């Protein structure tokens, strides 16, 4: 099949595009030229239909990976709904743990767009649904429970508490982790003996 790269001039291409755009009688739709590439730290302002998957790797601490599957659905001229489903996996003591995080339900609305200035402005809000797994930590002999989103956070607090008690009071302790099969695995020694982080669903 022959190439069509030079079949039309730039002026002819502009006229074809202008003709096709004439089928849309509603000028309130934001122009597709404003569907700019997704930024690293902000959301796109342009409402659209797509599925996005992002991955983050731990650069410090325990090895881990966090994935987000984001489903975006446009409705109406200026609106979009969004569902963000996170999956987190962490390696603790050569054992990988994973689970679903808290799901986010978002809504976006385009408020202003201008092809002349090349700008688009939208507002977005979201609600966090506490559907993910939690890690709980308790001190032995205490009824108080602390909950954390990840095992790494729970262990960091347990280790810091153990070191503090060992440093201030000279008391020995063992920080342990409850495995999925119910067995206990020693993580660290020192401090007042806390009951280990145990997994629970919120």
In short:
By secondary structure, this protein is of the alpha+beta class. It is built from two helices and eleven strands.
Radius of gyration: 26 Å
What profile does the largest beta sheet have? 6 strands, antiparallel
The total of helices stands at: 2
Mean of residue pLDDT values: 78
Secondary-structure element series: HEEEEEEEEHEEE
Outline the low-pLDDT stretches: 191-202
Helix/strand-derived category reads alpha+beta
Q: State the helicity in percent bands.
A: 10-25%
Shape: elongated
Q: What is the count of β-strands?
A: 11
Beta-strand percent range? over 45%
Q: Separation of termini?
A: 60 Å
**What's the number of domains?**
2
What does this protein structure show overall?
It contains two helices and eleven strands; from the N terminus they run αββββββββαβββ. Strand 7 and strand 8 (145-148) form a beta hairpin. The strands form three sheets. Strands 1, 2, 3, 4, 5 and 6 form a six-stranded antiparallel β-sheet that branches. It folds into two domains: 27-129, no CATH class; 133-201, no CATH class. By secondary structure, it is an alpha+beta fold. The longest helix has 19 residues, at 151-169.
């Amino acid at each position: 099949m022959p190439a069509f790269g030079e079949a039309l001039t730039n002026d002819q291409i502009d006229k074809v595009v202008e003709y096709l755009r004439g089928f849309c009688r509603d000028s309130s739709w934001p122009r597709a030229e404003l569907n700019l590439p997704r930024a690293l730290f902000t959301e796109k302002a342009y409402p659209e239909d797509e599925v996005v998957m992002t991955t983050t790797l731990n650069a410090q601490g325990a090895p881990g990976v966090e994935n987000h599957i984001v489903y975006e659905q446009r409705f109406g001229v200026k609106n979009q709904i969004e569902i963000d489903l996170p999956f987190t996996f962490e390696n603790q003591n050569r054992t990988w743990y994973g689970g679903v995080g808290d799901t986010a339900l978002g809504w976006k609305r385009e408020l202003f767009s201008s092809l002349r200035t090349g700008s688009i402005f939208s507002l977005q809000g979201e609600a966090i649904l506490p559907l993910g797994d939690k890690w709980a930590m308790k001190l032995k002999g205490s009824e108080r429970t602390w909950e954390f989103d990840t095992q790494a956070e729970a262990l960091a607090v347990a280790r810091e508490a153990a070191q503090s008690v060992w440093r201030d009071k000279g008391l020995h302790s063992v920080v342990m982790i409850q495995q999925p099969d119910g067995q206990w695995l020693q993580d660290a020694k020192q401090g007042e003996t806390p009951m280990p982080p145990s997994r629970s669903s919120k």
